[in-house]
């Protein structure tokens, strides 16, 4: 039961966070004789930020699903680690809005906006890593743990995203758009399964 | 399991997107002695856009349901095709807000707004078509595939919406209100089942 | 399956609509030396509208639940009647915001705002009545229909809310606050079960 | 069935309320040559309020879960007590926004904002206490009630939060930031289980 309700609640929060991204996309205001088409075009940073954040939250959902398919038992720390993961996931619309507002103008605001974006994603990545480390700590939660080398390799793949986010934070001070693109590429990498170590639990 | 959680997550995103449409409906501002009744009346493009978008997202849900009732197995590409479908569905409140703001004033903004609306719906339709094509590619996902002619006909019915959206984009440059009405009519067409090709899976 | 997913989707839309009501409650703006406490107090129409709308949507959920506990089979028209009910339920935050903005100032705006509120609730009530009438039309959806007199009485109780909403619309032109209070009283009436006619379906 | 749908609806409302907190976090506006980094930093009351409210709603979810794991039967009053609990939970984003806007400036607005925050949390705590008292009133809902002393102790632990909120309201008039910190500490206390009195119901 606990696992089902934890998954349902997590799915709810993730689904709402991913859908709330759209409220940062606002109709542009038009002044004397401006073309709507042109003003819509000028909002490209909003669209780019929407796309990258949507992909990333989507990938959080995919991997949440992959991790919990293997989990057989939920304990107290896992509940809190999961709540911590949701806290950072639900926060994503905020840095997304900051990037949407300030990426286009360049300068310090663009660099700071994308660096903030990277910091939130780094903390999201570390939170997910902590959850994964707890789940694979021993066989109490998974039922059956694979050889230590397999677990280590999976943890490494799972954590490598955080290292990339660290790079993206640095890159934000050189080229904010490139740093945003790196976030997008990281999300695409995680659409492939990096989390499976144990047999999945059939609940059919 | 995978299928249940994919359906639950999709239902969540679709339910949130359809309900978020309402936050584009704002109380009108009143200046010196204006009647609220008159200003509410003037917001008719908001109500029209709300209605058409609500119908369309509602129909996406109905058809998502119809397609996945037939699916027996979920694979990796289907997860990504579904995420892509949700991306465009969750985006709908944005063009809806643009139409609400600019349809009433006419001119270039009205034409551009409804054309943008059509483009998002076209991409939504194509995404759904790609998902449907993948599901009906062979019998691995459906368990049992009907004769090729039945599949072809169902795909054609399922895809025809995208052709109509293409027409609606063109029509937006002639008569934006008519183009919006065409979107509404398309949604009504899809309330009827165009997606069933295989026996449904009982999960009771 | 269909029934489960219809209930889950409806629960989602209703839960989102009821929770979105809060975004109409905004922190007041303060000008030179105004007290926050006083400005918060002045927003009482927002709180009243939030409370009545929350109660009403909560009651829609309770009754949706009571009706569908009795339903054994879902058909096409029921899907559409349910979508229609959700359309008006999801719309509630809009007239709520209009009442919150214009009830306090009195005059034509207050009367129009509460009348609009009543119109949306009337259409919501009629939509629910239509759904209930369809469900109790014969025994195909309920499995087993009680005597005609029982059904008639239940329909009458279920529909009487719409008559009250009609009264509330008229009352809005005399005393907008009283009309809002009548809406609240109607919601309280419907917390008691007015919908049960058939044995409930155990799904445990 | 009733219990499952009540849990699903409650999870939905709680998940939406917790995720809606983010829309109070807005990108700061920049004037002539201000640094984005500095303006983001200045918004610390928003981040503090987000964190405390997220923790508190998260803890409401954990405890809702702990209480309903023990419940075997849902009756009418429990439905209403649960709706009342959801009303206050869904309201949390409002005082959170007020704190975010007025904590940083100090003075009467800061004190009033945090006192309002405390009042809403107090009413939330009392609502949860009333629900818990009803559930543990006799053995009809839990199936099997533990000795009276165990129930009394659990009620006391469960209710003690409301006493702390009362203290926090008073503290708001002395030091608003300290009062907010006390709210955060209370949430952390409730991450530990204070609600278990009866054997849980397996639903697997």
How many strands, which pairing sense, and closed or not: the largest β-sheet of chain A?
Answer: none
Q: Strand content of the residues of chain A, in percent? A: under 5%
The rounded Rg of chain A comes to 19 Å
Q: Which H/E pattern describes the elements of chain A?
A: HHHHHHHHH
Largest interface: A-B, 37 and 33 residues
Shape of chain A: elongated
Helix proportion range of chain A: over 70%
What is the tally of helical segments of chain A? 9
Mean pLDDT of chain A: 88
Q: Please state the oligomeric state of the protein chains shown.
A: homotetramer
Fold and architecture overview:
4 copies of one chain form a homotetramer. With 204 residues, chain A is an all-alpha fold. Chain A contains 9 helices and no strands. Chain A has helices at residues 2-20, 36-42, 44-70, 76-91, 93-102, 107-135, 139-142, 148-172, 176-191. The A-B interface holds A 7-8, 11-12, 14-16, 18-23, 25-27, 30, 35-37, 40, 50-51, 54, 58, 61-62, 65, 69, 191-193, 200-204 and B 1-2, 4-5, 8-9, 12-13, 16-17, 20, 23, 76, 79-80, 83, 86-87, 90-94, 97-98, 100-102, 108-109, 112-113, 116.
């Amino acid at each position: 039961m606990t696992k089902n309700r934890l998954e349902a609640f997590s799915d709810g929060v993730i689904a709402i966070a991913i859908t709330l991204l759209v409220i940062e996309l606002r109709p542009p205001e038009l002044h004397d004789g401006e073309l709507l088409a042109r003003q819509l075009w000028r909002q490209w940073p909003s669209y780019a930020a929407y796309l990258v954040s949507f992909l990333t939250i989507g990938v959080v959902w995919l991997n949440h699903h992959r991790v919990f398919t293997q989990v057989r038992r939920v304990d107290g720390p896992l509940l809190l680690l999961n709540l911590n993961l949701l806290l950072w996931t639900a926060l994503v619309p905020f840095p997304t809005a900051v990037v949407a507002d300030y990426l286009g103008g360049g300068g310090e605001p663009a660099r700071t906006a994308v660096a903030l974006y990277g910091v939130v994603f780094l903390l999201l990545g570390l939170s997910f890593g902590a959850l994964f480390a707890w789940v694979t700590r021993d066989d109490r939660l998974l039922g059956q743990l694979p050889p230590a080398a397999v677990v280590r390799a999976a943890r490494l793949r799972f954590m490598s995203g955080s290292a990339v986010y660290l790079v993206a934070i640095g890159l934000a001070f050189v080229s904010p758009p490139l740093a945003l693109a790196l976030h997008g590429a990281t999300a695409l990498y995680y659409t492939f399964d990096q989390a499976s170590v144990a047999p999945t639990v059939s609940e059919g």
